[in-house]
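User: Predict the structure for this protein chain, please.
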Amino acid sequence: MAAIGYEHLIRRFSLNVLPLKAPAITSGSVNRRVDAPNQILFPKSVAFEDSPVGHLEFALRHEGVNLEVIDAAFEHISPDELVDALTAAPNRATVRRACFLWEWLTGQSLSVATTLNAGYVDLFPQDIYVTATKPTNNQKFRVRNNALGNADFCPIVRCGEVTGSPSLADLMEQAKRTLEALADPVLYERAVNYLYLSETRSSYAIERETLSSDKQERFVQLLRRVGESTAVNEDWLVSLQNAIVRDVFSQEASYRTTQNWLEDAAGRVTFFPPPPEDLRRAMAGWETFVNDASRCDDTLVKAACAAFGFVYLHPFLDGNGRLHRFLIQHVLAPSSPLKGGALVPVSAVILKNIPEYLSVLSDFSRPVTQLWQYQRGDVTPVVVHSPGARAYRFIDATAEVAFLYRMIRLAVEDEIPRELAWLGGYEKAFALLDAELDVPNKDLSALIRMTHSNSGVLSEHRRKQYNHIPKHVLDRIEQVVREVFNPQGHADSESGNSVQR
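Assistant: Here is the predicted structure, written as structure tokens:
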């Protein structure tokens, strides 16, 4: 068996890149292409030129577009090799795509004497990838650049694995109808405020950080800024970071200038974000991707790529996770039909699906961290060699897009109705009991919440805690809560939702 295509280039040049999920190899046991779980088998008779450019062309033809490997390989492939291949076959689509990629990624120019008359060819095959809405034509190589991003930050999304029904637009319309069913404007406003609180508390809970009233209010006010028409840049992100971190010592004045990392309880490094010397270029590309409305108009894809791309780049020493989830809301907001600033409680659903969330994050962080060479120091890891920012700039965000779609769908179909059912039931129970009982408002509110969260029963512990309130009053509160909230509401309360209230 012999490696071909991308795997050949990785081995030939010892490229420090993420391992391929399915490397291509030749095998005498097959007479056609066979897509096995962990590799792609080709017959030994498969036609290709056994040269770096030949293997690159083979990869573009049969394995898709892997910008990380291509960018790394261009450090070893002579531009003359590309020019010679183009001169020999000026109309061949794969060599034209390779030549375009060399200029696009390196920022340099190939000296080509041949004038091409071939038709335009897509850089990314549209039947495989989510592509730019408004591609740009490169006349020199007759290549249609339909990449989602730019040469400094270009996520890749495979379309076959992220198509979903209902669509994002349909889900947002469903959320709109659910909220607008609250005919009372006052109750609608309370529901909007409640969604802000739910998103705030959940986002901090994901980070396992204690949320003070001051932090809560600051993050709620931050969420009210989602979708604001301003350029996403360093100054804007710094202002957001300063608003959400726990203390002034963690507030940043710029993107980080030192290396940071994440580690587990045993002190083992679980994630290295890109080194600071490569971060600024990557963040400039990320900013362009987020601000450019002409290339990616798929809101779901853009939200996932922007948010997960941000958290992988980790431009600050603190606050990246909360900003990452804020960015989901920020990208979704301009196309949202929700009124009154309402938002979809994505973080609340993520909090209930932490294992899946962590799996998506670790599927990137684990292999990319293995590209780093470091030694454990007394306090900080000592980096011997880093892979730069290449793996972070050219992420395959297919899984991230699919994950975000599932979270939004759960939020719309389950979380919002659940929260509104709770809010409507709470308002009704409070109004009934407040008119009937002489109980301080703060005690009545707490007792309703406690009773609901315990499936309509006030525990003995809580009864002792409120022993200054007569037993028949506590019994009446139990009765009203059970009557107001239906059995499904009781079951819902057991899901842990009460923690967020």
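The first helix runs from residue 6 to 13.
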